[in-house]
Amino acid sequence: MEQPRRITDSFPRRRRRGPGRPPGRLKDKKDKDKKDKVQLKVRDSARAPSQPAPDPALLEMLRRFDLSWEYGPCSGITRLQRWERAQELGLSPPGPIRDALLEHRDNPDVTYRWVWDGVGW
Amino acid sequence: MFSEQAAPTAQGLLAPPSAEPPTFARLAVSGYSDCSQPFQLGERSFSRQYAHIYAVRLAGMRPGLERRARSRWGNDIALRRLSELQEGEKCCVVGTLFKAMQLQPSILQEISEEHNLVPQPPLPKYIQPEDELMLEDELQRIKLEGAIDVQRLVTGTIVAVYGCEQEDGRFLVEDHCFADLPPPLPWSGPSSDRFVLLASGLGLGSVSGEALLSTQLLVDVVTGQLGAEGEQSCAARITRVILAGNLLSQNTQSRDTINKAKYLTKKTQAASVEAVKMLDEILLQLCTSVPVDVMPGEFDPTNYTLPQQPLHRCMLPLASAYATLRLVTNPYQASLDGVRFLGTSGQNISDIFKYSSMDDYLEILEWTLLAGHISPTAPDTLGCYPFYKSDPFILTECPHVYFCGNAPRFQCKLLQGKEGQRVLLVTVPDFSATQTACLVNLRDLSCQPITFSSFGADSDD
């Protein structure tokens, strides 16, 4: 005999939230690419890492890329956007950075700028 | 000229009715392509700071300015960044100008409670003799003095200065230069006379209805319902109408309803609703006969920051049924019959007017073309979208017709460049004040004003 089916089985599957999270955080759902740093921290703890965390040397290289002034301001845009902008302006940003950014696309520590104490632009 | 186009066999109005009334077919549109994609914003995000737009502006214009500097002051001049300056060494620096003005309205001064100051009333010009000019590059800034006109220049212009640093840390300028005219576009204009009508500042919804008669006369001339066969055959040569902003009057912007109590304003409609209905009817008459491009302006129902997005077609239900109506952005760039048009509704020029000693709108228009940027004061004093990837206001190609709307009077000038550029500069006057529109002849880039003055209340017959 098959398992008793529920009406809710036909509803689209949603990702299970971590415990202690308030329900109905719509902002969280559609803000995949937004730069809302305050919610970043919460999202980190809820998501199970699907790939191994990037090594500190990579993060250090990315931080140096952020702070190098030749490629323009780093606040408010993702590192990949900044890399592509530098490429289009002919400033020849280093290629390995782009490979690293694409490899760790899901990890917000990699895609977004390094944040001081959780509060940044 | 326009009136010389009359068909030679045209009859006057006082002629007996002919068996078959002559018809004049309007010249068909041969080539139109819209080039204002950089000004159309899709997803908008305002969570960025404006540092990005200044950085890409400098990075984008630096190569052109370095080339211009080398050709002007010699190939062997030293191009330095501000951090590499040495005292007394003659060199060239490329950077962004910043003008420190005491009278510039500052939001911090307005909300500062310790000073107990009333907010500064809007002035026609905010310049003062004590203003100072500073040059900024990616890392540092330095004060400029010398052969540079502080009163004339505005914040946000990219400039190359030649001079040396003094002991007190200021930079003594011996000469300076701007990006100059952008490279020319190939000319493929029509061989016969074709006209484009430029009008701006229709000002619908104003308290006085005096301009309505002039607006109706304008529509009648363009649709060929005015005049005898001579005028009709001329009007058939108008291939396009461009309305450059301020279709609604400033009176529709009154915000009294916000301060009044709700029970007083419940039944009142916003003034702009009636005005947009009137605009729809006028555009309907035009669209049935000629392609129309409608650009939004300062008082129109669209966003405030540059680039202004097109008016939404749901506001114009009657007129948007026709494919001849094109709702376009401000600034607007398009190629009509092989002639490249570029223009704004005038906010950039009037903003530079407020912060510069230049008084003539045509002079300011020419200066923006020579500076290589449509609106250098954005985002400092003029609202602008926080671009991060590229600055779409940088002029990369020289248009054939460069216009600005809502000017106080009509002026036009044909500018010849060193590399073969030919630009027609047109300041389109405010129609509600001057009842004047402009006709641009695409064949030889000449421009002619056309005035629809009607009897005013104070004029005696």
TrEMBL record, chain A:
Q: Name one GO cellular component term.
A: delta DNA polymerase complex
Q: Name one GO molecular function term.
A: DNA-directed DNA polymerase activity
> Which Gene Ontology BP terms does the record give?
DNA synthesis involved in DNA repair; DNA-templated DNA replication
Renumbered to this chain, region (Disordered) spans 1-55
Positions with biased composition (Basic and acidic residues): 1-12, 25-46
Q: Which residues form the signal peptide?
A: none
Instruction: Identify this protein by name.
Output: DPOD4 polymerase
Organism of derivation: Chloropsis hardwickii
UniProtKB/TrEMBL annotation, chain B:
Write out the GO biological process terms. DNA repair; DNA strand elongation involved in DNA replication
List keywords of the entry alphabetically: DNA damage, DNA excision, DNA repair, DNA replication, Nucleus
Domain DNA polymerase delta subunit OB-fold: where? 49-175
Domain DNA polymerase alpha/delta/epsilon subunit B: from-to ranges? 196-411
Where, subcellularly, is it found? Nucleus
Q: Family assignment?
A: Belongs to the DNA polymerase delta/II small subunit family.
Q: What is this protein called?
A: DNA polymerase delta subunit 2
Pfam families on file? DNA_pol_D_N, DNA_pol_E_B
Q: Which GO terms describe its cellular component?
A: delta DNA polymerase complex
GO function term, MF aspect, one: DNA binding
- State whether keyword tRNA processing applies: no
